[in-house]
């Protein structure tokens, strides 16, 4: 489970670094980011951004995050870790339920 959390955290953090341009040779196009592969690769970051958008809507104003966005990377890493651990647990439960070796 710790390995899943570490992989998920890396998934979210790397997604943030790519989308914010910290990994120089990688500049994905908008078309790629909104496509199926891009959505999967950047899911933790997109989830955080969707939550921010929802909170901005509830507040009725923009949060002006242009100069203060490093925390989004941390939130994306935590979200990626949570998603990976959830996936690990689902696979574990399904395997236990349907595998005759666990009976």
Description:
Helix 1 packs antiparallel against helix 5 and helix 4 crosses helix 5. The mean pLDDT is about 90. Helices cover about 75% and strands about 0% of the residues. The two termini are about 20 Å apart. It has one domain. The chain has 5 helices and no strands. With about 100 residues, the protein is mainly α.
* Count of the separate structural domains: 1
Report the β-strand fraction as a percent range.
under 5%
Main sheet properties: none
Rg from Cα:
17 Å
Span of the ends, CA to CA: 22 Å
**Mean pLDDT, rounded to whole units?**
89
Helix percentage: over 70%
Shape category: globular
Structural class: mainly alpha
* Number of helical regions: 5
What is the number of E strands? 0
What is the helix/strand order?
A: HHHHH
- Spans where pLDDT lies below 50 across 5 or more residues: none
Reconstruct the topology from this structure.
Layout: H1 2-19, H2 30-34, H3 36-41, H4 43-59, H5 70-98
Short description:
The chain is mostly helical and 103 residues long. The protein is 73% helix and 0% strand. The chain contains five helices and no strands.
Question: Keyphrases for this structure?
Answer:
103 residues, mainly alpha
